[in-house]
Amino acid sequence: xxxxxxxxxxxxxxxxxxxxxxxxxxxxxxxxxxxxxxxxxxxxxxxxxxxxxxxxxxxxxxxxxxxxxxxxxxxxxxxxxxxxxxxxxxxxxxxxxxxxxxxxxxxxxxxxxxxxxxxxxxxxxxxxxxxxxxxxxxxxxxxxxxxxxxxxxxxxxxxxxxxxxxxxxxxxxxxxxxx
Amino acid sequence: xxxxxxxxxxxxxxxxxxxxxxxxxxxxxxxxxxxxxxxxxxxxxxxxxxxxxxxxxxxxxxxxxxxxxxxxxxxxxxxxxxxxxxxxxxxxxxxxxxxxxxxxxxxxxxxxxxxxxxxxxxxxxxxxxxxxxxxxxxxxxxxxxxxxxxxxxxxxxxxxxxxxxxxxxxxxxxxxxxxxxxxxxxxxxxxxxxxxxxxxxxxxxxxxxxxxxxxxxxxxxxxxxxxxxxxxxxxxxxxxxxxxxxxxxxxxxxxxxxxxxxxxxxxxxxxxxxxxxxxxxxxxxxxxxxxxxxxxxxxxxxxxxxxxxxxxxxxxxxxxxxxxxxxxxxxxxxxxxxxxxxxxxxxxxxxxxxxxxxxxxxxxxxxxxxxxxxxxxxxxxxxxxxxxxxxxxxxxxxxxxxxxxxxxxxxxxxxxxxxxxxxxx
Lengths: 179, 425
Description:
The complex is a heterodimer.
Chain A: E1 12-20, H1 26-29, H2 32-36, H3 43-48, H4 58-61, E2 67-70, H5 83-89, E3 93-96, H6 101-109, E4 114-116, E5 129-133, E6 138-141, E7 147-149, H7 158-165, H8 168-178
Helix pairs in contact in A: 6-7
Chain B: H1 5-12, E1 24-28, E2 32-35, H2 38-49, E3 61-64, H3 74-89, E4 94-96, H4 104-107, E5 119-123, E6 136-140, H5 144-150, E7 152-156, E8 160-166, H6 178-189, E9 198-202, H7 204-208, H8 211-219, E10 228-230, H9 235-241, E11 262-267, E12 274-276, E13 284-286, H10 287-291, E14 299-303, H11 310-320, E15 330-334, H12 338-346, H13 349-356, E16 359-360, E17 381-384, E18 400-403, H14 406-415
Parallel strand pairs in B: 2-3, 3-4, 5-6, 8-9, 8-11, 9-10, 14-15, 14-17, 15-16, 17-18
Antiparallel strand pairs in B: 1-7, 12-13
Helix pairs in contact in B: 2-3, 2-5, 6-8, 11-13, 11-14
């Protein structure tokens, strides 16, 4: 099922950084009482509640192209599809010391770039400018000049191909057409 | 070099004789699930949009409304109408509507969903629960569409952690159960200890403890960050599943020379009941450390996929019998399935709860995930038998949630503050 093609999507991002700490759960990203209880909620309404418990007012401050830099275990807890909300808000890429596995997979499967970069939370302060290259795994703090090297997704692996396709549905459409 | 239980099950499901950590595979699954709420609805709509006319196997897709059962709003009711239409259109054989329903992890194994040696990939992060039946079971969300259509998903073969449980767990009779082991592990090793890894539970205490305790530990492997949490198969496993399985069991044991990334050695003999403070399951301490704080509570919640089964209710009833819920506390009781609701009725357990002043609901994920049937208000302080206490988890972000075993929950409901249930032994 492996399928490699030219990159149709942006793989290099630079933008203003929002920092988040360790163990940011999907309960705070996508609160059950405000989002899950409403099966037909619009993406915009859902996204407006993102991080409202831990950072009231944050969702309204996010600008298109902003970048999240987080600590350990980003997206822990429930498997709910929280990356969609980050994407709706305009976040271009999330980089974290580590991410919960389902959250990371959800990122890949909706075509939302997410990079695991141990130590990244130590080299960014909020408001600084980051440059993230998903292809090489290079993470630059353009404000301080510090550079980190993450392990990028390996070409030819399923997550690489799916992210490249722009998400699972696009990838699946391709697979189903070939059947 | 040999293989871990995880590696053996994954190898068997990708047509390989051997797999190694780090390797990417496409694995065929033995079962998947679709549940109520926005994720189930999104999956159905995406499936139809992609033009997928058939499920990979309509007999291996289990469907239930557990998160919003019965519908609290018109919106949720309409969503269920859409799910029922999906069930008919795609010929789903295993659908459990209200009255025959339950929280998926408790319900499905009683209806042939799993056999030892299976690979399950299912919605809901607590899908690790099935690991107590010697099953490699991971959670998913966005890729449900992929699994519904093709019956396959990609996996990176994880490294495994061997968690050896020594000694004897006091069990329900001593008010120390699997939940306490899970909270202890989350506190000791951290809630990201098993990130991207499988955790395999072995050792004498594993075989000595009840299936209910194993279930709670596998369930909360999710709270260690684990991809899978797997137990060996023994007589208790097969006895529990006897007459329920739809595939012959393929019990899978680890090889003596299997490679583990880490080994945890834990003696559970003198383990006390544990409590996790807000807002992280990893902030766990012995209940004796919390007791002195005289933490007044406003709500106590007994239920969930972690601790909503018969062993839990029998244990809680033994604490509550002849006692009353404190006047400043609401005790909400939610069984993990309708079958458990019925059994509690037959055993007179509902009389005990009702006489004590508890509110008994139907089976739902409701209160635990802040959806309905017990959502917390601002400034509420709740002790819950659930798996999670993240900020805002059960409702208001100004509420606080403590996690504990069922005996601790009801003992605290009686006392009005968090107490060691062993004082009621």
